[in-house]
């Protein structure tokens, strides 16, 4: 009676170790997908990113034309820090830009900015 | 010629960079500013005659213009003109009326806004209406909608065809300071979204925000009061100023505040030479 119990405990702990080692792997793929989905949601939301007000992008309907189309983002911004800076405070690179300072003026949170950047790199 | 080029260069810098504004607002004269502002739009929209700019976005976009012309066949502001005429003709409790304040009748658009040298302030038409009421023991009207908008519709209709001619009196430093304050207000970025009036209505005029076309700033003051489909109502210029400030997520100033009166002074001066055509209908 005692032996099987011990065995069960051992098996359970093995399973636990196995589970712990497996979880990060599968959730990383899941997590990236979720981040990209959240980024798209933030980008499209009229009260958050509202990118479509000015940019043609992805499957967005009735985009504006004040800014350039958001395509080939990896080619245009090989350095993620540059893309981040463009979202944080676009006037630093171009004093005449109309693009709002999404970071500097706290229009988006850090997490939202991260997610939008992940999403932008899929375009 | 050289002066004009310098003026254009300075206004461009002022227009496009908020930090330079406060320092540079006084660097060009009102007359130079008109020249710069007007030619910016006539070059940006070649083929649009100066007078057409009184029609806002409908001066530059054929599709919007077609539906606007259809709306103008049964103008939504018409009942307000009738209501305004009734208000104009209804005596105050003391037996007097608006005609006792505005001696030469309801066609007053050409006289406003103007600089009042004694009081050292810009006087707008809505302000003059309420001061008339108060001088006769009546309560002032609300600034943005309702009876005041109807009165303005009637007075505007009677003033149609008058030409904008806002004077910044030569040698009056206070008048010039008020004008320059309005100019700074126009070119300064504000709000969480960081837009100046000039960002949308000068720099990006004619471009699309989603499906909306940004109207050119030239002529922006001629058509008031405006029946806006979005409001489903007739509203005053300062109501729209407040709405624009809210849209860029800035705290709006109060209607008829010094800030908005000075802004109206500058902006109306920019449309000198263009005919008043209010009331009008807008999307």
From TrEMBL, chain A:
InterPro entries: Cyt_c-like_dom, Cyt_c-like_dom_sf, Thiosulf_SoxX. It comes from the Bacteria. GO terms for molecular function: electron transfer activity; heme binding; metal ion binding. SUPFAM superfamilies: Cytochrome c. Residues 1-29 form the signal peptide. Pfam families: Cytochrome_CBB3. Keywords: Heme, Iron, Metal-binding, Signal. This is Heterodimeric c-type cytochrome complex SoxAX, subunit X. It comes from Solemya velum gill symbiont. The lineage of its organism: Bacteria, Pseudomonadati, Pseudomonadota, Gammaproteobacteria, sulfur-oxidizing symbionts.
Automatic annotation (TrEMBL), chain B:
Belongs to the SoxA family. It catalyses: S-sulfanyl-L-cysteinyl-[SoxY protein] + thiosulfate + 2 Fe(III)-[cytochrome c] = S-(2-sulfodisulfanyl)-L-cysteinyl-[SoxY protein] + 2 Fe(II)-[cytochrome c] + 2 H(+); L-cysteinyl-[SoxY protein] + thiosulfate + 2 Fe(III)-[cytochrome c] = S-sulfosulfanyl-L-cysteinyl-[SoxY protein] + 2 Fe(II)-[cytochrome c] + 2 H(+). Its EC number is 2.8.5.2. Residues 83-162 form the Cytochrome c domain. Heme c 2 binds at residues 197, 200-201, 244. SUPFAM superfamilies: Cytochrome c. GO terms for cellular component: cytochrome complex; periplasmic space. This is SoxAX cytochrome complex subunit A. Gene3D superfamilies: Cytochrome c-like domain. The active site is at 244 (cysteine persulfide intermediate). The lineage of its organism: Bacteria, Pseudomonadati, Pseudomonadota, Gammaproteobacteria, sulfur-oxidizing symbionts. Keywords: Electron transport, Heme, Iron, Metal-binding, Periplasm, Signal, Transferase, Transport. Binds 2 heme groups per subunit. Residues 1-22 form the signal peptide. NCBIfam families: thiosulf_SoxA. It is found in: Periplasm. Heterodimer of SoxA and SoxX.
